[in-house]
Amino acid sequence: MKAVIVNLLKSKTLYLLIITLALIGYSLQAIQPSFSDFTLTTPSGKTQSVDTPGFMQSYESGVYRLAGTVEMSKSSSSTLRIIPDDEILSLTVNQKTVDLNRIPHEQRRDYNKGFTYDLSEYLHEGKNQIEILYSDQGGLMGIVISAEGSQGFSKLIYFLLAIFALIISLKLLNSFKFSTPIKVLFIAALIIRLAYFMVTPADVRDHDLGDHIGYSEYLTKHWMPPPVDYAVGGAFFHPPLYYYTSAIVYKATQLIEPNNKVAIYRVQQLLSLVYSMGFVLFGLMILSELFNLYRASPKSSAVMEPVQEVQDQRGFIARMCRSFKDDAIIWVIGALFAFWPSAIIHSVRIGNDPLLYWLYAASLYYIVRWFRHDQKRDLMIASIVGTAAILTKANGEILVAVLGVIGLYKMFSSKQWAKYFKMAIAPCLIMLAAVAITVGPGLILKMQGKRDKLYIDNIDGLSQANIVGNTAANYFWFDAKVFITEPFTDPYDDRMGRQFFWNYLGKTGLFGEFKYPGLMSINTAIICSFLAVLMFVYMLYGLYRMSKEDFKRLTPVLLSGFFLWAGVTYMRMTFPANIDFRYIVPILLTFCALYGVSILTFQRQGSIRLANIGIVISGLFSLSAILFIWGIFSH
Fold first, then answer.
1. What DSSP designation does 205 have?
2. Cα–Cα distance list, 9 to 6, 12, 134, 445, 536 (Å)
3. How far apart are CA 585 and CA 560, in angstroms?
4. CA atoms of 454 and 441, how far apart (whole Å)
5. Cβ-Cβ contacts under 8 Å for 140 (sequence gap 6 or more)
6. Are β-strands 296-297 and 87-93 bridged in parallel, bridged antiparallel, or unpaired?
C-alpha cells in the first residue's frame, strides 16, 4: 500500500488532474458576484437579514421584497440566472427597472431553471444595489441568483472537462493494459458523448426527469428507502441503488450550488455519462473476448484460439495500423457498438438506465468468461455485479435467468452435480435476495390491491393516445418503407409506424422516441435506418450459415438477447402501449456479436466478398451515426 501511495504521489497524471480540476473550480468561481447586506421583507411588513439569496421556508402568502448588494469584480459575469419560487414580479438594479416582459411568463415562475438575463447595461464593477419583488403561495420560496458564463467561457469549461476525462481514461486504459482497439474506440466514444453532453441540457430528450430527481431528492433528506406505499407513483417503485449514488452526488453539488438546479442537473448528467462509459468499456471487452475465439493460429486457419495483443515499442500510429490489420473485426464491430446512436442519446439522460447498462454489461462479461473458463472467481464476480444490476432496476433480473440456464447446462453436460450445486449456493443466495428487495414493494402492493400488475403500474392511468393495437398483425408485420423513409418515430402518430412492434422497437433502438430538426440529422437518420435493415438481413443470413460451434461460443450473449427480447415482448403484450428500446439497450451486444460472427463465418467459408460487404455496411453505419450526432451538435 505504501508503494502505491508513493507511486501515486510521484505520478504526473495526478498533478495534471489536480491542476485541471483547480482551473475548472477557479473559473466557475471567478465569474460569480458576491452578495452582502441582503434583507427580506414579508407581505406583512416584517424585515429580516438574509446571508445570500436562496430558497427558504415560506412565512406567509403574498408579495416579498428582497434587497441587497451585489459586488462585481473584473471577472464577474453580468449574465445572471434568476430562479424564482413562486414568481418574480419586478427587478430593479441601481434604481433602474429591468424590463422582464421579454421573459416568457412560464420562465418567470420556473423554480427549476428560471431564466437568464444579460444585465451588463445595469451592473458596473464594484457594489450594485438590487431589489426583487416576488410572490409566493406557500411551501418553499425565494430567489436564487447565479452567474452564467459567456458562450466562450462555456466552451473553455467543456474543454477543461474533456481534458480531465481524457486524462483519467488514458490512465485507466494504460494501467489495465487494454488492447489498442479498445483504447482508441473507448476514447472516441467518450469524445462523441462529451460533444453530445455539451448541447443537451437535462430536460432535453429526457424520460421522467422529475420522477428520477424526486427520488434522489427524497434520499438526500431521509437517506432511508421510502415507505412501500410510495411505490405507487413516481420512480419510487424502482430499487434504490442508482438513487443513492445520485443522492450522494446531488448533496456534493449542493456544497457549491445549493439551489441552482440547472447546475445540479448538469452534474447528474455527468454521473450518467460516467456510467455510460462503463457500459461502453465492458461492451468492448465482451466483443473482444468473443472475437478472440476466432483468431487463427499461424499453424492452421482451421484452429481458433484466443490471442493477447503483443505490446511492442513501435509508434502509436504503427501499432494502430498493425492492430487494424490483425483485428479488423473488433475495430469494425467495436465502432458499431461504440457509436450506436441511441446508446449515445441515452448516455447523458438522468435516470437509472445508464447504471443498469453498465452493471448488466459488466456482469455479462464475467458470465462470458465463466462460460469459457469455468472459474469460480468469474461466477462470483458476475453474480455480485448482477446483484447490483438488479438493485438498480428490475431488468437486471434477466441475468439470473442467463446464469441459471448456463449453470444447468454445465451441470448436465459435465454430470458434476455436486460441484456445480455447491458453486451455485452463494450466487443464488445473493441474487435472489436482490430479487426479493426489488420485487418486494410491488408484490406487497399487488397483494393489497393497490397495484394491478407486479412490474407495471395500472394501465387505467395511461392516456388513450398511447394505446396501440395488440393483435398478431402488430407483431408479425414490419413496414420497411415507413421504417426507412420516416427518419423518426412518434408514440402518438400512426403514420410513423408506432402500431407495429418491430417498427417502433427498431426506430427507438436507433434514435429513441425523439425528433431532431437538423437537416443533417434527418438525412443521416434515413441512411442509418436503411443500413440497419441491411445489417439485420445480413445477420439473419449469417445465422443460417453459422455452425453449431458458433452458437455454443455465443451462448451467454444469445441467452441475454433472447431474455431481453422476450421481456420487452411480454411487456408489450400485457401493456398495449409502445415500449421503448431503452429498456433493452444491452441487446446491442447480442446484435453486434452476431453481426461480427456473421462476417467471420463468411470469411471462414470463403465468401470473402460477402464478408467485405458486411464490413462496409457496418462502417457506413458507424460513419452515418457519427454524422447524425454531429448534426445535433452543430444545429
1. S
2. 5, 8, 52, 53, 51
3. 11
4. 9
5. 55, 56, 57, 58, 85, 111
6. unpaired
For the record, the C-alpha cell of 109 comes out as: 415562475
Per-residue confidence band for 1, with pLDDT thresholds at 50, 70 and 90 = low
Distance CA 55, CA 123 (A): 24
Amino acid at position 120, single letter: S
Which residues, in sequence order, are CB contacts of 100 under 8 Å at separation 6+? Answer: 88, 90, 91, 108
Give me 322's grid cell: 498493425
For residues 466 and 496, the answer to whether their CB atoms sit within 8 Å is no
HEC profile of 63-120: EEEEEEEEEECCCCCCEEEEEEECEEEEEEECCEECCCCCCCCCHHHCCCCCEEEECC
| Beta carbons of 81 and 115 less than 8 angstroms apart | yes
Whether 245 contacts 392, CB under 8 Å: no
Query: Cα(544)–Cα(145) distance, rounded to whole angstroms?
Result: 63
**Cα(393)–Cα(451) distance, rounded to whole angstroms?**
18
The 10s digit of each residue's pLDDT in 475-494 is 999 999 999 999 999 999 99
Q: Which residues is 64 bridged to in the sheet?
A: 134
Interval 603-613: pLDDT, tens: 999 999 999 99
Mean per-residue pLDDT, 512-522: 95
Order of strands across the sheet that contains 96-97: 47-50, 34-41, 62-72, 126-136, 87-93, 96-97
Return the minimum-mean-pLDDT range out of 156-165, 361-370, 555-564, 573-582: 573-582
SS3 409: helix
Q: Which of 290, 303, 345 is nearest to 510 (CA)?
A: 345
Count of CA atoms in the C-beta half-sphere (13 A) of 488: 18
